[in-house]
Amino acid sequence: MTDVRIAGVGLTKFGASPERTGRDLFAEAGLDALDDAGVDQDAVEALFYGNFMGELAEHQGHQGPLMAEAVGVDAPATRYEAACASSGVAVAEAVKNIRNGERDVVLVGGAERMTNLGTAGATEALAIAADDLWEVKAGMTFPGAYALMANAYFSEYGGDQEDLAAIAVKNHENAVPNEKAQYQREISIADVVEAPMVAEPLGLYDSCPISDGASALVLTSEAFAEEHDLDAPVSITGTGQGGDLMALHDRDYLARSPAADEAAAAAYADAGVSAADVDVAEVHDCFTIAEVLAMESLGLFEVGEGISAASEGKTTREGELPVNLSGGLKAKGHPVGATGASQLAEMTSLLRGDHPNSEYVEGATTGVTHNAGGTVASAVVHVLEVEQ
Amino acid sequence: MTDVRIAGVGLTKFGASPERTGRDLFAEAGLDALDDAGVDQDAVEALFYGNFMGELAEHQGHQGPLMAEAVGVDAPATRYEAACASSGVAVAEAVKNIRNGERDVVLVGGAERMTNLGTAGATEALAIAADDLWEVKAGMTFPGAYALMANAYFSEYGGDQEDLAAIAVKNHENAVPNEKAQYQREISIADVVEAPMVAEPLGLYDSCPISDGASALVLTSEAFAEEHDLDAPVSITGTGQGGDLMALHDRDYLARSPAADEAAAAAYADAGVSAADVDVAEVHDCFTIAEVLAMESLGLFEVGEGISAASEGKTTREGELPVNLSGGLKAKGHPVGATGASQLAEMTSLLRGDHPNSEYVEGATTGVTHNAGGTVASAVVHVLEVEQ
């Protein structure tokens, strides 16, 4: 089985650019990734593309071939949709296609245009990631769903709004030097706990923003990277996907994420590593509580102990295990279809040493990314390792 | 590399059932496929699911986990979207997952609910498979796009409306005994050429209907099929995918489909067969002209000769190479996300000998399926072979 190399990464700035189409955004990210890799468009054998709400935001489905065209790639192209885990799933399938020997060079990534819908329109569009029949039609949107999860967590394991606030503060701090981030500014604990309440206990600053943006990775086989003398020290050594019942009311637990547990176990086993080997993580903090659940699924903290990780300084940039050095979804932004591949792009830069926050993970060899769809009915975990 | 067995197939009746949800439809097809295979839900390791317009027709994205839940499958689930080739692509990826040893038993299929939108609403929703910015906003919908392709074909290679009508007549004749078909009734050449014009030269009977429906396949590794003594004589021996520029105005040809040429060449090479080995075909006849283009891409007829295949009786059920014995999209119906996997379900029954039209392909060993997205910006071809 070939090693899967990340030969190049590309990201647009995340933020509000409602005048830019999805194809405009993805063309930028895709071309940047090819440029970073030193790989020509003609070498790309397939596109694996994640998008979530193109039908609603741009009246555009069938985006696979459209995005291949936008990047100038003449190859089969498929769109993957798993809500907020869309491009995470695209990465997982791309990895398998290289491993099974079918492809040597692929482009993988995602894009989302959201801010043109406005906040209410985007919130309604995001709701299609929940069970429309039983959740959405009853008035449930995602802030409410994650608020239920947060309250269940508090009730079962303890913790409070200030613990969650510490996560938002940390991720904003991390985003300051990241030019791709939507919010390059610090916030305080007081800012978070005094912010307007969205769905108790989650306030405005516990919630990731509505964002436009795109991400792309060039993945190659080890043989191709060596033959073409690519500078590609980072490999994807583990991939895992998990699934869960869609609606919260059907589940046994609200404060745990079995789909992410399953994805993490599969990815670690695939890579032959354990949670103890992880030096740095990018996790799906669509709301502050989501970072807690993610870290516990990844085994980075025991169940019930993730809540205090940020407030105790363990996951800050100077802590023992920095989490979301990119700024996370919270401060870097969350253009849904772009997020999963974006996490791998950020992790690649962190491990290669060319990220503005690389200084906080010097010597790190193993990173993990965690991408979730809906209320974690879908989850994808990847393990990345760098040659030292 | 393991042989990929089709252990079971399931189909709802295609037609108008606007009161049934997508999950209701897929649950029926999925459970029927598991029953046909003699495989329990607990054995299923992943779901590969195709859907195209759930966001518009049911305000429902993230259908992967929802559909797994509907069938009672607790496993990772991914939704694939490539317009009308959505479940064809899902099959292609499922095949790779079995071949690379990652999975032994998977469920693959698709569903679409369309008729609840009405004909105008469904036509507008279908249009998102074209380039919204440059085609749809200029007034293009799919009847118009395929009419351009038909006129280009007539101009370049000859043929007329009666040649196309013979395709519709043939496919309606094939659908009569197929209880899963939307239209189990014969039509005449006169019915077709005298029908209301939709987009010249394509009339009402040159066009497939708007349909609701679902399809499912249980795929297993050869080892699993043998170990569990499954009755699974049909294998998927070849898979191929191709892509093309999205908008018609960007292409060099209107009357040829390079994406399908590419998919066919890849699938034949993968299976180690050639067009001459094909005994029976199910192709994507969303409009009558599309059947012509498909057969030529598959190499079943020379370019320019596919147009007269039906009118000369070559592709009728008594002909040398029966095409669309299911009734095709034209008469069996076209619930978009269900279509690709449905073609493989029909072909499996034809080759196993339990299809109402199996008598016309006695002794057939090799079948091919052709599934197209949009104006063939995406194409997927599969080769199926049966043990004799």
Output the CATH homologous superfamily of chain A. Thiolase/Chalcone synthase
The overall pLDDT of chain A, averaged over residues, is 97
Annotated CATH architecture of chain A: 3-Layer(aba) Sandwich
| Helical stretch tally of chain A | 13
Q: Structural class given helices, strands, pairing of chain A?
A: alpha/beta
Element pattern of chain A in H and E: EHEHHEHEHHHHEEEHEHEHHHEE
Give the CATH class of chain A: Alpha Beta
Beta-strand residue percentage of chain A: 15-25%
Distance between the termini of chain A: 21 Å
Major sheet of chain A: order of its strands? 3-2-4-7-1-8-11-10-9
Task: Assign a percent range to the helix content of chain A.
Answer: 25-40%
Q: Pair with the most extensive interface?
A: A-B, 58 and 58 residues
Q: What fold name goes in the CATH topology slot of chain A?
A: Peroxisomal Thiolase, Chain A, domain 1
CA-atom Rg of chain A in angstroms: 19 Å
Organism (chains A, B): Haloarchaeobius iranensis
InterPro entries (chains A, B): Thiolase (IPR002155), Thiolase-like (IPR016039), Thiolase_C_2 (IPR055140), Thiolase_N (IPR020616)
GO molecular function, one term (chains A, B): acyltransferase activity, transferring groups other than amino-acyl groups
GO biological process, one term (chains A, B): isoprenoid biosynthetic process
